[in-house]
Protein backbone atom coordinates (compact mmCIF):
# COMPACT_ATOMS: atom_id res chain seq x y z
CA UNK A 1 0.00 0.00 0.00
CA UNK A 2 1.44 3.46 -0.89
CA UNK A 3 1.82 6.21 1.57
CA UNK A 4 -0.73 8.46 -0.21
CA UNK A 5 -3.50 5.88 -0.16
CA UNK A 6 -5.77 5.39 2.90
CA UNK A 7 -6.59 1.92 4.09
CA UNK A 8 -10.04 0.58 3.06
CA UNK A 9 -12.54 0.06 5.84
CA UNK A 10 -13.61 -3.54 6.50
CA UNK A 11 -16.71 -3.75 8.62
CA UNK A 12 -16.17 -0.15 9.79
CA UNK A 13 -12.49 -0.82 10.47
CA UNK A 14 -9.42 0.21 8.55
CA UNK A 15 -6.98 -2.23 7.02
CA UNK A 16 -4.42 -1.14 9.53
CA UNK A 17 -6.60 -2.11 12.42
CA UNK A 18 -7.45 -5.39 10.76
CA UNK A 19 -3.83 -6.35 10.29
CA UNK A 20 -3.21 -5.96 14.01
CA UNK A 21 -5.80 -8.77 14.82
CA UNK A 22 -4.85 -12.39 14.65
CA UNK A 23 -6.58 -15.05 12.55
CA UNK A 24 -8.54 -16.66 15.41
CA UNK A 25 -10.12 -13.43 16.38
CA UNK A 26 -11.09 -12.78 12.79
CA UNK A 27 -12.76 -16.17 12.52
CA UNK A 28 -14.78 -15.50 15.63
CA UNK A 29 -15.75 -12.09 14.29
CA UNK A 30 -16.94 -13.55 10.98
CA UNK A 31 -19.00 -16.22 12.77
CA UNK A 32 -20.61 -13.58 14.96
CA UNK A 33 -21.51 -11.48 11.92
CA UNK A 34 -23.04 -14.48 10.12
CA UNK A 35 -25.05 -15.35 13.22
CA UNK A 36 -26.38 -11.79 13.41
CA UNK A 37 -27.41 -11.88 9.76
CA UNK A 38 -29.15 -15.22 10.14
CA UNK A 39 -31.20 -13.97 13.07
CA UNK A 40 -32.24 -10.84 11.25
CA UNK A 41 -33.38 -12.69 8.08
CA UNK A 42 -34.66 -16.10 9.15
CA UNK A 43 -35.24 -18.70 6.55
CA UNK A 44 -38.83 -19.88 6.72
CA UNK A 45 -39.41 -23.34 5.43
CA UNK A 46 -42.39 -23.60 3.13
CA UNK A 47 -45.42 -24.92 4.98
CA UNK A 48 -46.76 -28.01 3.39
CA UNK A 49 -50.49 -28.64 3.64
CA UNK A 50 -51.04 -32.28 4.19
CA UNK A 51 -54.09 -33.77 2.57
CA UNK A 52 -56.56 -35.81 4.63
CA UNK A 53 -55.27 -38.89 2.96
CA UNK A 54 -51.90 -38.33 4.56
CA UNK A 55 -53.43 -37.53 7.95
CA UNK A 56 -55.31 -40.82 8.22
CA UNK A 57 -52.81 -43.55 8.72
CA UNK A 58 -53.71 -47.06 7.57
CA UNK A 59 -54.08 -49.69 10.25
CA UNK A 60 -50.81 -51.28 10.97
CA UNK A 61 -50.68 -55.04 10.49
CA UNK A 62 -51.22 -56.98 13.69
CA UNK A 63 -48.01 -58.49 14.84
CA UNK A 64 -48.41 -61.81 16.70
CA UNK A 65 -47.16 -61.66 20.25
CA UNK A 66 -43.76 -63.07 20.64
CA UNK A 67 -43.09 -65.67 23.28
CA UNK A 68 -41.40 -63.95 26.14
CA UNK A 69 -40.12 -66.14 28.89
CA UNK A 70 -40.68 -64.48 32.21
CA UNK A 71 -39.46 -66.01 35.40
CA UNK A 72 -41.48 -64.72 38.38
CA UNK A 73 -39.82 -64.19 41.71
CA UNK A 74 -39.33 -67.25 43.84
CA UNK A 75 -41.77 -66.08 46.50
CA UNK A 76 -44.49 -65.42 43.92
CA UNK A 77 -43.99 -68.79 42.21
CA UNK A 78 -44.16 -70.61 45.53
CA UNK A 79 -47.32 -68.73 46.46
CA UNK A 80 -48.91 -69.61 43.13
CA UNK A 81 -48.02 -73.27 43.63
CA UNK A 82 -49.55 -73.19 47.11
CA UNK A 83 -52.75 -71.64 45.72
CA UNK A 84 -53.00 -74.33 43.03
CA UNK A 85 -52.40 -77.08 45.59
CA UNK A 86 -55.01 -75.54 47.87
CA UNK A 87 -57.53 -75.58 45.02
CA UNK A 88 -56.73 -79.20 44.18
CA UNK A 89 -57.13 -80.37 47.80
CA UNK A 90 -60.79 -81.18 48.56
CA UNK A 91 -62.60 -79.26 51.23
CA UNK A 92 -61.85 -80.93 54.54
CA UNK A 93 -64.92 -79.38 56.15
CA UNK A 94 -67.26 -80.88 53.57
CA UNK A 95 -65.66 -84.32 53.86
CA UNK A 96 -65.86 -84.16 57.66
CA UNK A 97 -69.56 -83.28 57.50
CA UNK A 98 -70.18 -86.19 55.13
CA UNK A 99 -68.37 -88.61 57.47
CA UNK A 100 -70.29 -87.26 60.48
CA UNK A 101 -73.62 -87.70 58.66
CA UNK A 102 -72.70 -91.26 57.64
CA UNK A 103 -71.71 -92.10 61.23
CA UNK A 104 -74.96 -90.61 62.56
CA UNK A 105 -76.97 -92.69 60.06
CA UNK A 106 -75.15 -95.86 61.13
CA UNK A 107 -75.88 -95.10 64.79
CA UNK A 108 -79.55 -94.52 63.96
CA UNK A 109 -79.70 -97.82 62.05
CA UNK A 110 -78.10 -99.68 64.97
CA UNK A 111 -80.59 -98.12 67.38
CA UNK A 112 -83.53 -99.11 65.18
CA UNK A 113 -82.17 -102.66 64.86
CA UNK A 114 -81.91 -102.95 68.65
CA UNK A 115 -85.47 -101.67 69.06
CA UNK A 116 -86.71 -104.13 66.45
CA UNK A 117 -84.93 -106.99 68.20
CA UNK A 118 -86.46 -105.93 71.52
CA UNK A 119 -89.96 -105.79 70.02
CA UNK A 120 -89.56 -109.16 68.31
CA UNK A 121 -88.31 -110.61 71.60
CA UNK A 122 -91.32 -109.21 73.42
CA UNK A 123 -93.61 -110.69 70.79
CA UNK A 124 -91.85 -114.05 70.93
CA UNK A 125 -92.01 -114.21 74.74
CA UNK A 126 -95.85 -114.31 74.94
CA UNK A 127 -95.89 -116.99 72.26
CA UNK A 128 -93.51 -119.07 74.35
CA UNK A 129 -95.64 -118.50 77.43
CA UNK A 130 -98.75 -119.54 75.51
CA UNK A 131 -97.05 -122.76 74.42
CA UNK A 132 -96.05 -123.53 77.99
CA UNK A 133 -99.59 -122.85 79.23
CA UNK A 134 -100.98 -125.15 76.58
CA UNK A 135 -98.62 -127.90 77.66
CA UNK A 136 -99.63 -127.39 81.29
CA UNK A 137 -103.30 -127.42 80.33
CA UNK A 138 -102.90 -130.67 78.45
CA UNK A 139 -101.15 -132.14 81.46
CA UNK A 140 -103.93 -131.02 83.80
CA UNK A 141 -106.57 -132.44 81.49
CA UNK A 142 -104.80 -135.78 81.59
CA UNK A 143 -104.74 -135.63 85.38
CA UNK A 144 -108.43 -134.73 85.42
CA UNK A 145 -109.27 -137.68 83.25
CA UNK A 146 -107.35 -139.96 85.62
CA UNK A 147 -109.22 -138.55 88.63
CA UNK A 148 -112.56 -138.96 86.91
CA UNK A 149 -111.76 -142.57 86.16
CA UNK A 150 -110.84 -143.11 89.80
CA UNK A 151 -114.10 -141.52 90.96
CA UNK A 152 -116.07 -143.72 88.64
CA UNK A 153 -114.24 -146.77 89.96
CA UNK A 154 -115.00 -145.78 93.55
CA UNK A 155 -118.66 -145.27 92.70
CA UNK A 156 -118.87 -148.74 91.25
CA UNK A 157 -117.16 -150.17 94.33
CA UNK A 158 -119.53 -148.29 96.63
CA UNK A 159 -122.55 -149.60 94.85
CA UNK A 160 -121.17 -153.11 95.11
CA UNK A 161 -120.55 -152.80 98.84
CA UNK A 162 -123.92 -151.20 99.41
CA UNK A 163 -125.77 -153.97 97.68
CA UNK A 164 -123.75 -156.71 99.34
CA UNK A 165 -125.49 -158.68 102.08
CA UNK A 166 -123.87 -159.91 105.17
CA UNK A 167 -123.68 -163.70 105.06
CA UNK A 168 -126.08 -165.41 107.42
CA UNK A 169 -124.37 -168.72 107.62
CA UNK A 170 -125.03 -170.77 110.73
CA UNK A 171 -122.44 -170.43 113.41
CA UNK A 172 -121.74 -166.66 112.79
CA UNK A 173 -122.53 -164.69 115.87
CA UNK A 174 -124.28 -161.38 115.95
CA UNK A 175 -121.09 -159.59 117.05
CA UNK A 176 -119.30 -160.72 113.93
CA UNK A 177 -122.13 -159.40 111.83
CA UNK A 178 -121.91 -156.06 113.62
CA UNK A 179 -118.19 -155.82 113.00
CA UNK A 180 -118.71 -156.56 109.34
CA UNK A 181 -121.25 -153.76 109.08
CA UNK A 182 -118.90 -151.34 110.84
CA UNK A 183 -116.11 -152.20 108.43
CA UNK A 184 -118.39 -151.61 105.46
CA UNK A 185 -119.50 -148.28 106.93
CA UNK A 186 -115.87 -147.23 107.50
CA UNK A 187 -114.99 -148.19 103.96
CA UNK A 188 -117.87 -146.10 102.71
CA UNK A 189 -116.65 -143.09 104.72
CA UNK A 190 -113.17 -143.47 103.30
CA UNK A 191 -114.64 -143.67 99.85
CA UNK A 192 -116.68 -140.49 100.37
CA UNK A 193 -113.58 -138.67 101.62
CA UNK A 194 -111.55 -139.78 98.63
CA UNK A 195 -114.35 -138.80 96.29
CA UNK A 196 -114.64 -135.34 97.80
CA UNK A 197 -110.86 -134.95 97.56
CA UNK A 198 -110.90 -135.94 93.92
CA UNK A 199 -113.81 -133.59 93.27
CA UNK A 200 -111.97 -130.69 94.88
CA UNK A 201 -108.86 -131.44 92.84
CA UNK A 202 -110.90 -131.52 89.65
CA UNK A 203 -112.51 -128.20 90.50
CA UNK A 204 -109.16 -126.59 91.19
CA UNK A 205 -107.84 -127.75 87.84
CA UNK A 206 -110.84 -126.31 86.06
CA UNK A 207 -110.45 -122.99 87.87
CA UNK A 208 -106.82 -122.78 86.78
CA UNK A 209 -107.84 -123.40 83.20
CA UNK A 210 -110.28 -120.50 83.38
CA UNK A 211 -107.55 -118.19 84.62
Brief sketch in words of this structure:
The protein has 211 residues and is mainly alpha-helical. It has six helices and no strands.
Strands, helices and their partners?
Blueprint: H1 15-19, H2 23-40, H3 52-55, H4 74-88, H5 92-163, H6 174-210
Helix pairs in contact: 5-6
Q: What is the H-and-E element order?
A: HHHHHH
- So what's the overall shape? rod-shaped
Helix content: over 70%
Structural class: mainly alpha
How would you describe this structure to a colleague?
- One of its GO terms (biological process) is DNA damage response.
- Keywords: Coiled coil.
- This is Protein dimerizations.
- The protein is built from six helices and no strands.
- By secondary structure, the chain is mostly helical.
- The longest helix is centred in the middle third of the chain and has 72 residues.
- The termini are far apart.
- The chain is rod-shaped, with a radius of gyration of 77 Å.
- Helix content is 72%, strand content 0%.
- 0% of the residues are buried.
- α5 packs antiparallel against α6.
- The N terminus is likely disordered.
- It has a domain of 114 residues.
Amino acid sequence: MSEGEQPAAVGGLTDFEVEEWDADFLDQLVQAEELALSTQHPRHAPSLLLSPTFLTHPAAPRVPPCDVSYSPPRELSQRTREIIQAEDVPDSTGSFCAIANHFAKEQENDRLKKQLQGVSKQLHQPEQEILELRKEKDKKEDELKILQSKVEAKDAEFQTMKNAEIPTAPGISTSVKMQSRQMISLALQVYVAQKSYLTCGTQMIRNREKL
